[in-house]
Structure formats: C-alpha cells, structure tokens
Amino acid sequence: MMQGSTSLSPTAPRHFLMTSRRHADSLHEEFPGLRDVLFVGFNQNYSSFVCGTESGIKVYSCGSLEQKICRVSSGEGFGIVEILLNSSIFALVGGGKNPFYSPKAVMLYNDKEYRFFGELAFRSPVRAVKLQPNFIVVALEFKVYVYSFETLKVLHQYETLSNIKGLCATASTGVLVCPGQRTGQVKVERFSAKTGFEIQAHETSLACLALNSNGSLLATASTKGTLINIFRTNDGTKLQELRRGTHPADIFSMAFSANSQLLVLSGSNGTVHIFRIQANVIEEPRRTEGTALVSSGSASDLFRAGSMLLSSVAATAGSSFSFVKGVMSKYLISDRSLCQFRLPSGSRATVGFGPNKNTIIILCTDGSLYECLFDPVKGGPCQLQNHFSFA
Q: What residue range is the signal peptide (predicted)?
C-alpha cells in the first residue's frame, strides 16, 4: 500500500487465543515469551494501562490493579498497544522478534467483537499511535498523520525532524503537539480553532512531550534532561521552568495530574520526580519594593526575588559579572521537585497519576509495577503501596 493508505477490511492476522483472568497465569508456562515486554502505556484518562509483549497483550485497571483483558498470540509480538479510554477498541502495531503484523501498519481491533476493522499502512515503521474519540494520530520518523476515526481518512499531515521516539501528544479537545522542523522546536496544532504555531522549547533536541487533559498546558523536555518547560498551548507563552537536577538524564515519560496542578516524570537516572505546577508563575512578580518580592514566602517566589537581586548587583558590578548572572539567574528561577521515588531497578519507566488519591503508578519495561503514595503538602520521598509483576 502507499504511504498513509487505509483499508477498512484488512486481511486479519491469526486470531488471538481468548483468555480470562482466571487461567491467565498458566499462560506463562505455555507461552514463556509473554513476559518479554515490548510496550507499556496508559489509556487517555489513566484509568487503565496496557502491555504489549512477544506473545500477546494485557490490560489492567489502574484503580484495582486487576487484569481486565489478556489476549495471547501464537508467539507473535506487539510493539505498540493503544486502547481508547475504557472501550474495547485497540490500535496494534507488530513488534519484537516475530511481529504479529507488519511494524509498518496500524491494525484497528475491536475486542468485544473479536475482529480487526481497519488498517493504516505505511512505507516506514510506525513509531507511535495516539487514539482520541474523534481522531487517530500516527507518528513516523519524519511525518505525523491525523486520521478521522469515523472514516479513517487523512485529515492532516505534518513534516517533522527525525523522530525515532515517535514523540507526540494529544488531547480530546483537538490539540496535537509533535516535533517541528528545527532542533528543539514543538509544533502545536489546535484543530477546533484551526490554528497552529511553533514553540522553540529548547536549544537541544526534544526528548519528551506531554499535554494535560484538556490540552491547555504543554510540558517539554530536551535530551539534556535537566530542565522541563511548561507552556500555554493557546499562545505558546512559557509559564514555568522545572529543574530535575544538574546532571543530564534521558527523560522517558511525563504526565500531568487530572487537575493539572502536578507533573510527574521518569528518567534514566532511576528517580521519579513529582513537581507542583505554580499558578503564580503566569505573571512575573512586579519589581517594586524588595519586601513585596518575598511577601508570599514560597520557594519559587524566593528564587525569583534572589534572581532579581542578583540582576541588580550585576548591573552595578559591571560586565565582568554578566556570565555568573546568566547562569545563577536561570538556576534560581527553576522550581525543584516536590516528591521523589527511587526505582530499585534501572528499568525504563512510564509514569502517571493513579485514580487513588495522591498516588502515582510506575510501569517498568521489566514487567514491574509500583504504586506509590505521595504527600502533596509536605513533599519528600514517596511511599511504596503496591508492587507486582504484570507481564
């Protein structure tokens, strides 16, 4: 098929062996490859998570942590598994040593009817798929396609820089973000408003993107991984800068809380961080009297007050202080994480906020799940609540 072509009646791969939670554990002996995790991810509202392996797919509830679906193939793998909310609709991409279907195609599957009902075929491997009730987004290395869910026809297509990771994020309100055509640039598309623009988010290449639930806020991380930027998607205004640390790290995953007041992220250093999204960073403190700058007493206000004081000192000290001013000013206005959790293994992790109050869920590619409790007021280390193997 041609690049971006569709088929409404694809030639289906071999059928899944339908299984129930009751005897799913016995499948590990019959299909040992089921433990080889190729993909983990959450649904759109973080109420469920999915797992793709060398021999099947699984779906778990994030609230009860119970297995909802287990579908096993005869030794064929799934490199990408996306589920639409809590429905029976999946987007599947083959992967692993023996792909279930071509890694260059997205297969649309209805688990309730046990049938494949659509195919999106391409000339190059699919890097990511995002499902929303009205549209489907498919990311290739150099292009992002947007399809109508109803007709499977192409609605939009965008050129990107090399995007091996398949970076893109969507919101049901019709917002899409993906890499632009320049290093560190993010393309923002708002379908309902029929507007689009670019944000120069970082000087180095992008490593991770995330939108909040209504698509109004965007979080970006670069390959350096020390700073995370928060932008407003209606006009590209930068609202806040978060500091993960001083040493570089690869950011694997980021997610906003349901109320958009918190952001959680995971990285290659093995630590999961939770940040508070500050409402008062939208408007910078007014440079009036010194006492007014620190009246609120919050850490971020103190940082900004220190930054302004440093700028004032630098102005009187002359240009010899300009380099220190630039470095220290940027450091002072970056907000540190509120809570942290150290993973016992160095596994790659996907993170999200759980439906249970003040919890995060961490999904690792070694098949481990960690549910942790955090204190949104005092902060500090997260407390492990549950840990088990889901693959």
A: none
